[in-house]
Amino acid sequence: MSQRLYLGLTCALIAAGGAVLWWAFSGPATAPPSEHPIDGLRDTTTVGWTNRHTATIDADDDIDALTALGYIHGMKRAWTLTVWRHTALGTLSATFGDELVPIDRHARRLGLAHHARRTYNRLDSTVRKRLRAYTRGLNTALQSGRVHQREPFLYFDLVPQRWAPWHSLAIERLMAWTGTSPVAKATPSDSGLADFRTADRRLRHWLHLHGRSRSVAWATRGDTSQTALFARHVLGATADPVVQEVVLRRPGTAPTVTATLPGAPLFPTGRAGAHRWTYLMSSNAQLTPVGLDSTQARSRHERIAPARGDEQLVEVQRQGTRVRVGSIGPDSAWVLQWPGLRAGTDLPRWLATANLDGQRGKAPADFRLMQGDGLRVDSTGTWSVQGQPPVVDRGPASILVGRSDWATYQARVLHAEARTGPVDPAQRSAGDSSAWAAALLPALVPSLDALSNADSTTADARSYLRNWDAVYDPASIGAVVFEEWMRAYQQAVGHLPSPTDSAFFAAPRRRRAFRTAVDSLTQRYGTDVRRWRWERVVSARRYFPVWAADSLVAQDLSALSSTRFAPLNRPGQGHASALSGGPTRVDPPPLGPAPAHWSGWMRRPSGDLTVRRLRFDPADFFARSLLSRDRPTSVAVQQAPAEHTTRLVPAAP
Questions:
Q1: Does residue 270 contact residue 257 with C-beta atoms inside 8 Å?
Q2: Residue 284 · residue 338 · CB < 8 Å
Q3: Nearest 5°: CA angle at 9, between 8 and 15?
Q4: Helix 78-89 crosses helix 101-110 at what angle (to 10 degrees)?
Q5: What three-state secondary structure class fits 286?
Q6: C-alpha closest to that of 87 among 2, 155, 170, 162
Q7: Quick one: 186 exposed, middle or buried, by C-beta within 10 A (0-12, 13-18, 19+)?
Q8: Is residue 486 a contact partner of residue 588, using CB atoms and an 8 Å limit?
Q9: Do 599 and 232 contact (CB within 8 A), yes or no?
Q10: Contact between residue 59 and residue 68 where contact means Cβ atoms under 8 Å apart
C-alpha cells in the first residue's frame, strides 16, 4: 500500500474521530435560549444560568419572579417533573405500562390529585394568582423544543402535557407523603395492612425518595454576627438532581437565596434579607383501628386507564376525614389519618417565607401538610425552633434538631466542637467521627480480651477494632468490624449494648456476637481482613427513577438502563451518628440506605448560601469516568458566575 494511501486513511480516521468527539461533547441543542416570550409576563425578566448549575432571577415584582422560577424548573428538571406529576396524578400506567397500576391505585387512594383540585378551588385570589404565574413559566419551558429533544422524552416518544396550576398542589402532597414514615411491616394481628404497605413501598421505591427522617438542622454561634445555620435534607437513593438553588433579586428588596423543589414554589432552606430558615419537610400520618360507622362511611370512585389494558375502577372508602386502608373484621378496619386527606396547602407559608406573597411584614400562615419542624435565625443571629421536632438538643453555643434517635449523637459531636470556638460548617458537616461508637468502644472492647482459641482472622479483626478511632472513613476496617459486631449482638439479644449494660453474662454474649460477626464477614468478603473496608460494605448506590424500574415499564429499557442510566455506585462513608450523616447496618431506614442528600449552610445574616450536593448528568461525555469518589465540592450560590442568560419577555399581543 502506498504512503499516500496510508496518509489518506490516517487523515480520514482523524477526521472521523474529531466528528465523533464533536458530536459527543456538543450533544443536542438543549441549552436555554437567549430570549423567550411568555404570555402574561408583566415585564422583562432575566434568568441567569451559572456554571455551578444554579440560577439567578432578576425581576421587577413577585409575580414575574415566580414565572421565572417555573421556567427554571421546567428547563432544569423537566424529566423529574414529568415522573413526579404522573405519580401524583395516578397516571403512570397510561404512560409507562400496566405493571404500574398498583402505584396508580395507591396514589388515587391517597387522594393526591383529588384533594389538590379541591384545594385549588378554595385558594384565595392572591395565592391563586401566584400559582398561575409559576405555572406560566413552567409551561413555557415544558413546551419548548429544547426540552422535547432530551433523551428520556425521545426514548419514550413522550411530549410533556401542559401543566395545570393545581398540579403543583398534587406535587406538594406527594412531597408531604414521602416525608411520612413508611408503614411498618404487618404482623399477623394487622394483616389487613399488608396490601396497603406493599403498595406504599412500591410508590417510594419507584421514586427512590425515602429516609427523610434522617434529615437534620443545626446552628452554632461564636458571636451574634457569626451564627451559622446548617441543613441536610436526605433524599433517599435517587440519582436525579432534586433540589434547584436560585437567587431572586427584585428592586428595593434584599436578595432571596434559596433551595427550591421542582413542581411547586417550595423553599425548604434559604435566606430572605437577614432572616434564614430551614424546614425538615416531614409530615405526620397515623394508621389506627376503628369500629365501622355506617353514618360516617362515604365512597368515591376513580378510573385508571392503562396504556394497553382495560380501564380499572378504584373505590376510595372514607370514614369521616380518614381513609379506609384495610379490614380487621366485619365491624372494624384500619384507617389512615393524614393532613393530605383534606383540602389545604402550605403554599401561603412557603411564599411568605421567601418574601414572595406580596404582604411583607405580615406573619406567615401555619403549616398544614408539613409539620413545620426546623430552625429559623433572625437578623440578630438568634435562633428559634420551629414546629415540634422529636429531637431538640441544645448546647451552650449550638443547637441541633432532627427526627431520628441518631440526631442525639450528632448533637454531641456538634456541641463538643462548638465549645472550642466557631464551627466551620463546611468542615464539620463532613466529619465522620461517631460519638455513639466512641462511647461504646471503651466499655465493650475489653470483653474481647478473654476471647479464647481465636484464629488468625478473628485475631486480626480484634486488632483492627482495638486500634479504631471511631471514625467511619471509607478505608476504615474497624468501622466494619464494630458495625457487624453490634448488628450480631442486636440480633441475638434484641437490643444494642450500652456502656452501662449490667446484664448477667454480658461479656460472654459480646464474645459470642463478635465470633458471629467475624464468621459473617468472612463468608461475604473472605479471610483477608484488609478487604473489609467501610466503603465496600456500605456502597452508596443511587438509582435513576423509571430506568431503575425496568421490570415494571412496558418499554424495553435495557439499552440505557444498563449503560447511561445504570445505577451509580459510590464508596460508602460516614455514619448515621456522625455529623456527615450516612449509613448504618444496625438501624437502616425501612426502605434501605438513603445515601442521597443535599446540604447547605449560611454563616452570617447576609452571607451566601453554600451547598454541597452530587450532580451527575448522564448526557455528559465520559460522565461516569469523571465522577469523583470524594465528597462533592462546595458551591456558593450567590457568587456562582452566569455562563449565559435568558431574557423572558412579554409575548406580543
A1: yes
A2: yes
A3: 90
A4: 70
A5: strand
A6: 170
A7: middle
A8: no
A9: yes
A10: yes
Q: Find the DSSP H helices in 262-376.
A: 347-353
Q: Is residue 495 classed exposed, middle or buried when 0-12, 13-18 and 19+ CB atoms within 10 A define those classes? A: exposed
Nearest residue to 385 via CA among 396, 395, 400: 400
What span, in angstroms and rounded, lies between the C-alpha atoms of 77 and 261?
10
Residue for cell digits 434559604? 270
Query: Which of 40, 152, 167, 250 has its CA nearest to residue 619?
Result: 152
The SS3 of residue 649 is strand
Q: Which three cell numbers stand for residue 577?
A: 451518628
Give the phi and the psi of residue 164 in degrees, each rounded to 5.
-95, 150
- What is the per-residue DSSP string for 2-29? -HHHHHHHHHHHHHHHHHHHHHHHH-SS
- Confidence (pLDDT) at 370: 96
Partners of residue 398 on adjacent β-strands: 220
Confirm if 96 and 546 have CB atoms less than 8 A apart.
yes
- Number of H helices and E strands in the chain, helices first, is 21, 24
The parts of the chain modelled with pLDDT lower than 70 are 1-31, 184-191, 223-225, 361, 501-505
| pLDDT given for residue 19 in this prediction | 44
Q: Which of 166, 167, 374 is nearest to 364 (CA)?
A: 374
Residue keyed to cell 422583562: 44
Cβ(164)–Cβ(117) under 8 Å? no
208 in Cβ contact with 597 (< 8 Å): no
What is the distance between the alpha carbons of residues 374 and 383, in angstroms, rounded to a whole number? Answer: 10
Cβ atoms within 10 Å, residue 378: 15
Q: In whole angstroms, what is the distance from residue 318 CA to residue 331 CA?
A: 15
pTM of the model: 0.93
How many angstroms separate the CA atoms of 630 and 598, rounded?
15
DSSP per residue, 25-88: HH-SS-SPPSEEEETT--S-EEEEEETTS-EEEE-SSHHHHHHHHHHHHHHHSHHHHHHHHHHH
Q: Enumerate residues 6+ apart whose C-beta is below 8 A from 536.
A: 525, 571, 572
- The residue assigned the cell 416525608 is 179
Q: What is the pLDDT of residues 397-439, one digit of tens each?
A: 999 999 999 999 999 999 999 888 888 999 999 999 999 999 9
Cβ 609 vs Cβ 259: under 8 Å: yes
CA distance 495 to 642: 53
Whether 236 contacts 207, CB under 8 Å: yes
Side-chain half-sphere CA neighbours of 156 within 13 A: 21
Q: So what's the pLDDT on residue 598?
A: 97
Cβ neighbours of residue 19 closer than 8 Å, sequence gap 6 or more? none
